[in-house]
Amino acid sequence: MESLVSVVQDLSRARDLDAVSAVARDAARGLTGADGATFVLRDGDQCYYVEENAIAPLWKGRRFPMSACVSGWAMLNARSVVIPDVYADPRVPVEAYRPTFVKSLAMIPIRRTAPIGAIGNYWSDHHEPSTEELAILQALADTTSVALENAELYMRLQGAVHTLQQQKLRISEQHASLGVFTRALAHDLREPVRTLIAFSELLRQGPTAEQGAQEKQATYLRYIGESAERMGALIDSVGQYTRLDAPERFDHATCPLADVMADVRGNLARIIAEREATIVHGDLPSLRADPVHLRQLFQNLITNAVLHNAPGVTVTIRQEMADGQRTFVVSDNGVGIALDQREQIFQPFRRLVHRNEATGMGLAICRRIVALYGGEIACRSSSGADTGRGAAFHFSLPDAEPSGQGATQGRAGAATEDGTSTEDDEMATVLIVDDREADLELTEMALFRRPRLRCNLRSVRDGREAQRILSEPDNDIDLILLDINMPDIDGFSLLDQIRHDDALEELTVIMCSGSDHEPDQRRSAELGAAGYLLKPPRFASFRDIVAGQPGLRLQDDGSGLTLVRNGS
Fold first, then answer.
1. Which residues pair with 289 in a beta bridge?
2. What one-character DSSP code corresponds to residue 538?
3. I need a surface site. Which of 112, 384, 486, 564 has the fewest CB within 10 A?
4. CA of 450: how far to CAs of 14, 399, 443, 537, in Å?
């Protein structure tokens, strides 16, 4: 009893599935003196042998149909089973037991109503556990059930806390944006307004008799025009900065950087020609981003280089790869930026030169855009030395994907684990459809962020929005993780629509639900779902489902896993 109390305490402290399964596995064997013990979880219509502690290997990591193993029988019938002789009981798949030491076993379901797993004990000789041993195993199974529910609750709380932290950060950023707007009203916008009022008043006073009055009037009108242009530029730049507070409005798409650069060249054609600047870049990839953001980012950086250097400057855009991370560099051969000013220039309204067209917001907007995609931007000397000439802005955009044609760096031509080429493969796009924000967070954490699985990840909060995305002509979704219980259009209705759409016949759909109701799982399979994940989903289950899909593959390039679509 003392040992059992100690086990209960250990289970109460377990915060995730790994911890719960390890405690239950060791306790099941230790408390009864068995020769082996396993911890089994229900995974759809299969039994998943999560953990084991035994004198010889059993079935850790393997899956068997519920109808073909004793643990499945215990779960389907919601009651314990004792088998003194495994070779004399029709419920035992004898061929699976022949390579093992097992002669007798006892299987106890985890949770007495709608079991979610089982704890199994094995003996190397013919053994029938006593009433006390069965009572101990049942107490362990009951406590394990509570521990699993606590672990799930803990993960949900973690997700909720993370969401609150993100909301707090968002509010903080919005306060910062409000500060920028207030600063613009209080100072930067007042200056051109004062200029407009002053010179307008001089013009209203009429011409004077002094020599050169007409020339002065023309000058006053030029000052008024420049002030109006500056005020318009300030309003536009503050508007761009504050609009970055609403990421849900962004329109992410696959954007070839070559097309983005063509747009930027067109927008800046006048100042490039006037200042005899040269813009140079080689092959560039495609990025998964909002095209407006990319144009703003590169246009601001190029504009800074052209306007803040002498005529004839050369601006170079290139990409670099280091430790599997793609970095972009926008550099020039101009005068450079002093070391003590390389951080200040990213602050709103910070200007290093007195130019009427400079608002001091360009680099602040660049930093916010890069941060939206999880990256960072920094200014260095283009020569790599503090005293070198020219400035170089280095920034990362982690959602980069190769464009196929023209992308000379990145994953193109890399080798997979089995030695096949990936030059025809692209990073897959995953869409999570779930109406609960906390569940979206948990799914992203469990399947993508925690295992560091790279892919193009999108999420929506309802079936209507998912329908809209899937109906787009350029839809590039490869895999959907689909919740069942959603308002308006539920997961089953959306799955049925997908399976009746010839354009989506190759789309992989995995149901991801909190329901362990067997009819739900059966209906998902009947409608053509590739698999069924219980929330919070386990990466191992997700990985096994993906492994069975012909159009997808998990690729390990040494720096981490990437979900890719198989080449044709």
1. 253
2. P
3. 384
4. 18, 17, 10, 12
- Interacting residues of 528 by C-beta distance below 8 A, sequence separation 6+: 495, 499, 509
Give the chain's domains with CATH numbers.
2-154 (3.30.450.40), 189-243 (no CATH), 251-410 (3.30.565.10), 426-565 (3.40.50.2300)
CA angle 325, 331, 390 (to 5 degrees): 130
Q: For 475, which DSSP code? A: -
Dihedral of CA atoms 237, 241, 242, 248 in degrees, nearest 10, equals 130
- CB–CB of 285/257 below 8 Å? yes
Residue 549 near residue 530 (C-beta atoms within 8 A): yes
Phi, psi (5° rounding) for residue 378? -145, 155
- Determine the Cα angle at 490 with ends 485 and 496, to 5°: 130
Q: List the Cα angle 453/459/463 in 5-degree steps.
A: 140
Is residue 399 within 8 A of residue 370, CB to CB? The reply is no
Distance CA 268, CA 248 (A): 29
Identify the three-state secondary structure at position 488.
Answer: coil
CB proximity list for 179: less than 8 A, separation 6 or greater: none
CA distance 511 to 239: 41
Distances (CA, A) of 320 to 59, 91, 283, 390, 397: 46, 60, 12, 18, 12
Question: Which amino acid is present at 471?
Answer: S
Element (H, E) at 391: strand 391-396
Helix (H) or strand (E) holding 321: strand 314-322
**Which structure tokens are listed for 206?**
């009429």
Strands annotated E in 414-506: 426-427, 429-433, 453-454, 456-460, 479-482
Which residue has tokens 């601006």? 315
Q: Which two tokens stand for residue 352?
A: 């290093």
Cis status, amide bond into 536, omega within 30 of 0:
yes
The radius of gyration computed from the CA coordinates of the chain, to the nearest angstrom, equals 32
List % helix, strand, coil for the chain (3-state, nearest 5): 45, 20, 35
